[in-house]
Specification:
Radius of gyration: 14 Å
Helix content: 25-40%
Pfam family, one: Whib
Bound molecules: iron/sulfur cluster
Low-confidence stretches: 115-121
InterPro entries: 4FE4S_WBL
Number of helices: 5
Mean pLDDT: 82
Order of helices and strands: HHHHH
Organism: Streptomyces vulcanius
Protein name: WhiB family transcriptional regulator
Structural class: mainly alpha
Distance between the termini: 19 Å
Largest sheet: none
Length: 121
């Protein structure tokens, strides 16, 4: 049995029109020898959601949806921890159109542009 991603990771680099994923910027993750996205949940959430430097990751919604489709059970993805992603999956089972990041209390949907992302293969 192998592990297979349902959705391949998109291009997270600065060459993407939506911009570079913040987790690629090593200046934001000063802790050496560990991956904060798996070992420092609070810092990783701050980086994703902009409380670290005032800028939300431009790839956050896309990142969340990749994690949701691929059932990523560990680490911070799309500005959510594993428990929050599981809660979302249980709340909206089989409803990927609802797997979009909303700030607590936020009800508006992101722009169509933000929710476009690679189709599941
Ligand atoms: S939202 Fe995703 S792509 Fe952006 S910094 Fe967080 S983990 Fe990286």
């Amino acid at each position: 049995m192998g592990i297979r991603a349902v959705v391949n990771a998109p291009n997270w680099s600065e060459s993407h029109h939506r911009g570079e994923a913040k987790c690629r910027d090593t200046s934001l993750t000063p802790t050496r020898n560990r991956d904060v996205f798996f070992e420092d949940e609070a810092l990783a959430l701050d980086i994703c959601n902009g409380t670290y430097d005032g800028r939300v990751c431009p790839r956050r919604t896309e990142c969340l949806r990749v994690a949701m489709f691929n059932k990523e059970n560990f680490g911070i993805w799309g500005g959510m921890n594993a428990k929050d992603r599981l809660d979302m999956r249980m709340r909206y089972p089989g409803m990927p159109e609802r797997w979009i990041w909303h700030a607590p209390g936020e009800t508006e949907s992101p722009s169509n542009e933000e929710t476009q992302w690679p189709a599941a293969s």
